[in-house]
Amino acid sequence: MRGLFAQGLIHDEAQTIDDCWNRIGIFGDKSCPKLPEHIHCRNCAVYSAAATRLLDRYSFEQEPDEHNAQPMAEQKVATRSLVVFRLGGEWLGLNTVCLDEVARMQAIHSLPHQRSRALQGVANVRGALVPCLSLVDLLGLDPTVTITPSQRVMPRMLIVAAHGGPVVLPVDEVDGVHNIEERALNAASLSGEHASAKYTRGVLAWKNRSLRWLDEEQLLGAITRSLT
């Protein structure tokens, strides 16, 4: 409505201006007595004043319209950032708030006399030894289930900010970090084979896949327990 109102003002303004340059000026019959002095209408104060009035009205039209801008802001879709990765035959998503880095796979050095089944050992991360845990064991996944990738993929390490410090979680493939609509996440539910899934908020359809959305707080709690 504001745009139409402004356009109307511009039209009304144009109607009230005496466009003498079109009647007796350079674009008319050239009978204006001031024309010999100014050579061209654009050099005349009357022409300049008329142009200024129209430009002022155009500036008014281009001013931000707060009444129209507010609904546009409300239309922004709320999203949440997840790192999407694969373990065996299952795709999972983890909130990026607890993700420090996605790194290349490094050698994992086993530890003697370790008591935790999930603790695989330690890995060198930027010169520091960081505990490395198996998400397959933590989540209770079937390690024998695999898929054939559609293209050449490389295993990666998720470096997660756990309660006691960084922890390495090896994964088979990382699809990337994606913003997923909150409404899709809120609609995710647990049913069927995922009804008893550990540390899981829900399962949703994503890119023709079934994506298991992990509960980061429960998962980080399980990681802490595995290291103590």
From TrEMBL:
Pfam families: CheW (PF01584)
Keyword hit for NAD: no
InterPro entries: CheW (IPR039315), CheW-like_dom_sf (IPR036061), CheW-lke_dom (IPR002545)
Keywords: Cytoplasm
Keyword Acyltransferase: no
GO cellular component: cytosol
SMART domains: CheW
Principal place of residence: cytoplasm
Domain CheW-like: residue ranges: 79-225
Location within or outside the cell: Cytoplasm
Gene Ontology biological-process annotations: chemotaxis; signal transduction
Designated name of the protein: Chemotaxis protein CheW
